[in-house]
Amino acid sequence: MSAHGRLADELREHALIIGEVTLTSGLTAQYYVDAKRAILRRPGFLALGELLAQRAEERGATAVGGMTMGADAVTCAALAGGADVKGFFVRKEAKRHGLSRRIEGPLLAPEDRCLVVEDVVSTGGSTVAAIEALQEAGHEVCGVVSVLDRLAGGGLRIEAAAGAPYFALVTIDDIYPERPDR
Questions:
Q1: Is residue 1 part of a domain?
Q2: How far apart are the first and last CA of the chain?
Q3: pLDDT tens-digit profile of 38-93?
Q4: Which of 36, 84, 95, 100 gives a 20 to 30 Å CA spacing to 106?
Q5: Share of the chain above pLDDT 90, in %
Q6: Whether the Cβ atoms of residue 102 and residue 90 lie closer than 8 Å to each other
């Protein structure tokens, strides 16, 4: 089975939760995808790492990361999958102590090409915030990859903010095609 198939199976089996929830955007939905439940298990992590390493190479990325929590496991999977990149995490705001950094990890050089990653995209707000933080710091975004896209319009918003291609490894159609909001 392909890495895509393995990742979709893991998300379907371990991450899909049926029931009303409030999303980060404040909207309510009749299902939730807690991708961390799947990608923090060995089979999901390995499949994700393989797919991300491939995407990083295709985009010529030299750094991979995104907004902390949503991108943490995803970034680590890219590194473990063999991507020859620096990993980074973007904080919602700069720390008020220590080095007062907003972008954590190895220092990003002006020539680094950043592949922004996210676990689940709905409206794209968290991903756009990470993109804006990178751009404000003078870094190039060469692409954006999500583990799963809920197909709620966030992809268009992300692509517009990044000025670079957006790609979802799996969509909600792959794991819950019979959902009520289809």
A1: no
A2: 27
A3: 999 999 999 999 999 999 999 999 999 999 999 999 999 999 999 999 999 999 88
A4: 36
A5: 86
A6: yes
- Domain membership of residue 57 (yes or no) is yes
- In this structure, what are the phi and psi dihedrals at residue 157, rounded to the nearest 5 degrees? -65, -40
Q: What percent of the chain has pLDDT over 70?
A: 97
Rounded to whole angstroms, the Cα distance separating 162 from 181 reads: 28
Annotate 141-150 with b (16+ C-beta within 10 A) or e (fewer). bbbbbbbbbb
Q: Which two tokens stand for residue 9?
A: 């199976």
pTM greater than the 0.90 cutoff:
yes
Q: How many domains does the chain have?
A: 1
Gap between the Cα atoms of 4 and 182, Å rounded: 22
Token duo for residue 19: 């029931």
Q: What is the distance between the alpha carbons of residues 182 and 176, in angstroms, rounded to a whole number?
A: 10
Angle among Cα 115, 119, 125 to the nearest 5 degrees reads 80
User: 6 lies in a domain?
Assistant: no
